[in-house]
Amino acid sequence: MPRYCRLLPKMEIFYLYNSGFAIELDNDALIIDYYRGSLGKSWKAPLDKHPSEYRAVYVLASHVHGDHYNRVIFDWLSERADIHYILSDDIRHAVPTRTGGYTLHTFR
User: Fold this and answer.
1) pLDDT per position as a tens digit, 18-73
2) Which domain range does residue 95 map to?
3) Which of 23, 25, 71, 84 could form a disulfide with 30 if both were Cys (CB 3.0 to 4.6 A apart)?
């Protein structure tokens, strides 16, 4: 009888709107192409937990089109200052000037 081997941690995927998804992976959160959608309990992001309850929060925006990117993702910094942003390079101009805290990665 084969044994069950759990290769992936517990994962929940939430559809937000259009091309947006939120993924809870164990104790991390990944928000992809947030445009709009149901908002979470005590913060302005689409997950059930407060941002401080996650080990890490990652936000990915694939490109600058309004149905894949919304500047509100930077408002979430008021709830958690160390968010990791992964943004296409056409969004770089939209990043607020702010010191400390968050991590910014861009891709082409």
Assistant:
1) 888 888 888 899 999 987 765 555 555 567 788 888 999 999 998 776 777 888 88
2) 11-107
3) 23
